[in-house]
From TrEMBL:
Residues 7-57 form the PhyR sigma2 domain. Pfam families: PhyR_sigma2, Sigma70_r4_2. InterPro entries: PhyR_sigma2, RNA_pol_sigma-70-like, RNA_pol_sigma-70_dom, RNA_pol_sigma70_r4_t2, RNA_pol_sigma_r2, RNA_pol_sigma_r3/r4-like, WH-like_DNA-bd_sf. This is RNA polymerase subunit sigma-70. Residues 97-149 form the RNA polymerase sigma factor 70 region 4 type domain. Belongs to the sigma-70 factor family. ECF subfamily. The keyword Transcription applies. It comes from the Bacteria. Keywords: Sigma factor, Transcription, Transcription regulation.
Length: 157
């Protein structure tokens, strides 16, 4: 299991950054997830996919953190942290900041679907399983999230 967790670290970090949008929060989330996974290793079934189990822990840990902080929905990336949103070579800083603000404006359930499907590349059915919702809900949330992002970013549908 430890080797599997090590192999999952890059994907887990991407998911954490997509959920948290602040580097420090994302790093803390990865640490919490790894601690919980190791502490509850006996709960993982070897016949189950380790990534799904770990991503479920990550999602639940982030939700726990948000509840503990009693944060509002639009809290994620302050403007000054916009440069950590995307790959430095991928877009100019102003564009990265605009994307970060658009993503931060999404409701948490939409942001989760975007993180899993668009950032992490999971299938709709895998995302539905991780989020414990029907595939249609994933499709609907993703469609609404895309529409919101397009409207915020001023791009055509």
């Amino acid at each position: 299991m430890r080797e599997g967790l090590i192999a999952l670290l890059p994907r887990l970090r991407r998911l954490a950054r997509a959920l948290a949008w602040q580097v420090a929060d994302a790093d803390d989330l990865v640490q919490v997830v790894l601690e919980r996974a190791l502490a509850r290793a006996e709960q993982w079934r070897p016949d189950a996919a380790l990534d799904k189990w770990v991503f479920a822990i990550a999602r639940n840990a982030w939700r726990d953190e948000l509840r503990a902080r009693n944060r509002s929905q639009n809290l994620f990336a302050p403007e000054e942290d916009g440069d950590t949103v995307a790959d430095v070579a991928a877009a100019p800083p102003a564009q990265r900041l605009e994307l970060a603000m658009a993503l931060a404006a999404l409701p948490p359930d939409h942001r989760e679907v975007v993180a899993l499907v668009l950032v992490e590349g999971t299938s709709y059915s895998e995302a539905a399983e991780l989020l414990e919702v029907p595939v249609g809900t994933v499709t609907s949330r993703l469609a609404r999230a895309r529409a919101t992002l397009q409207a915020h970013l001023g791009t055509e549908a």
